[in-house]
Specification:
Elements lengths: L2 H27 L4 H21 L12 H24 L2 H8 L2 H13 L5 H18 L8 H23 L5 H23 L5 H27 L2 H4 L6 H13 L5 H22 L24 H7 L12
Helix pairs in contact: 1-3, 1-9, 1-11, 2-3, 2-8, 2-9, 3-7, 3-8, 4-7, 4-11, 4-12, 5-6, 5-7, 6-12, 8-13, 9-13
Length: 324
C-alpha cells in the first residue's frame, strides 16, 4: 500500500471518530448548555495537553512574540468552540457540516489581507460558487434562520481566523504558546459562564464528556499521523467524508434525512473546497497555500491544530513557514 493510501485511510478513520464525537456532543446538547459541554471537554483534555506540552523542547518563555495576533486567535478559538458545539446540538448533523465546510472558502479570502496571498480569477470563482452553496443550505427567505445557523457560521468564520493566524505567526511563535493561551482562555470563559447554566450531571453523562475529550485527541493524533505519511493534497479532502457519517448517524440516531437543498448546497461547497485544495497543490499557483496547509477540524480549545501538535513533536521546525 502506498504512503498516500495509508495516510488517506488514517484520515478517514480519524474523521469517522470525529463524527462519532459530534454525535455524542449532539446527544449531550439535548441536556446541557454548550458552555457546560465545552467546559468539561477542555477540563478532561488538560492531562492529555500537559503530556504534549512536556514534549516541547523549543527554547523560550510563555510570553507571546505576537500578542495581538495571539489575542485574535484566542478569541476566535473560544467563539468557535461554543458555536460549533451549539450548532451540533440544535441543527441536523449534515447541515452543520455543510456550513462548517465553508472554512476553506473563508480562509482563501482572509489570506489576502493577512498573508498577502494573491487570489486569481479561478479561485475567486470557486469561492463565489462555494458561498452560493452556503446560501442554498441556509435558504434565506424560504426558511427561518435560527440561532443554530448563526452559530455554525460563527464557528466557520472563527475556525478560519484561528487557522490563518497560525499560518501568520507559526514560524515565530512557540507551539506551546499558540496552544496554551486559547485553551486556558476557553477554560476560564466557560468556567465563568458555568454557574449560570450548570445542570447536575449523572455519572453516565460525565463519562460521555470524557469520551468526547478522548475521541477528539485520538482523532487528532490520527490526523497528524496521516499528514506525516501522505501528501497534504490527498489527506485534506478526507475531511469531507464526515458528511457521509452525518447522513448515517443522523438517520440512525436522530431520524434526520438530508433534504434536497442541504444535499445540493453541500455538494457545491465540497466541490469548491476540493477545487481550491487541488489548485493550491499545483506548483506556482499559490505562494502561501493557506487552505491546503491549514486544513483540519475547527479548533474548539480542547485540542490543538495539526500544525501546532506537529511543531510540539518536532516534526515541523519552529522556523518553518509550512503549516497544516
Amino acid at each position: 500500500m502506498s504512503p498516500n493510501a495509508k495516510g488517506a485511510l488514517l484520515a478517514l478513520l480519524s474523521f469517522a471518530i470525529f463524527a462519532t464525537h459530534d454525535v455524542i456532543v449532539k446527544i449531550l446538547g439535548g441536556f446541557y448548555s454548550p458552555f457546560q459541554i465545552v467546559f468539561y471537554s477542555v477540563l478532561l483534555s488538560f492531562p492529555l495537553a500537559l503530556i504534549m506540552l512536556m514534549r516541547d523542547a523549543t527554547p523560550g518563555t510563555l510570553v507571546p512574540v505576537h500578542p495581538w495576533w495571539l489575542a485574535v486567535r484566542t478569541v476566535a478559538v473560544v467563539a468557535t468552540g461554543v458555536s460549533a458545539f451549539y450548532a451540533f446540538s440544535v441543527l441536523p448533523l449534515a447541515q452543520t457540516y455543510a456550513i462548517l465546510f465553508a472554512a476553506p472558502l473563508l480562509i482563501t479570502i482572509l489570506a489576502i489581507p493577512i498573508l498577502g496571498e494573491k487570489v486569481r480569477l479561478r479561485r475567486w470563482l470557486a469561492v463565489l460558487i462555494g458561498l452560493s452553496g452556503v446560501l442554498i443550505v441556509l435558504r434565506p427567505g424560504q426558511t427561518d434562520l435560527s440561532l443554530g445557523h448563526l452559530a455554525a457560521m460563527v464557528a466557520a468564520v472563527g475556525g478560519s481566523f484561528a487557522s490563518i493566524v497560525v499560518r501568520k505567526i507559526g514560524a515565530e511563535e512557540r507551539p506551546v504558546v499558540m496552544l496554551i493561551y486559547p485553551m486556558m482562555a476557553t477554560f476560564i470563559v466557560m468556567a465563568c459562564a458555568l454557574p449560570f447554566v450548570y445542570t447536575p450531571m449523572p455519572v453516565a453523562h460525565l463519562g460521555m464528556m470524557g469520551i468526547i475529550a478522548a475521541f477528539a485527541w485520538i482523532a487528532g493524533r490520527l490526523v497528524i499521523a496521516a499528514y506525516q505519511i501522505g501528501e497534504a493534497a490527498i489527506i485534506a479532502p478526507m475531511q469531507y467524508s464526515q458528511i457521509i457519517w452525518a447522513s448515517i448517524f443522523g438517520y440512525l440516531f436522530f431520524d434526520e434525512v438530508i433534504d434536497a437543498a442541504t444535499g445540493i448546497g453541500a455538494s457545491i461547497i465540497i466541490a469548491s473546497g476540493l477545487y481550491i485544495v487541488f489548485r493550491e497543490s499545483k506548483a506556482g499557483t499559490s505562494e502561501n497555500t493557506p487552505v491546503l496547509l491549514t486544513r483540519s477540524r475547527p479548533e474548539t480549545g480542547a485540542t490543538p491544530r495539526v500544525s501546532i501538535a506537529m511543531r510540539v513533536k518536532g516534526l515541523i521546525p519552529l522556523r518553518s513557514g509550512s503549516d497544516r
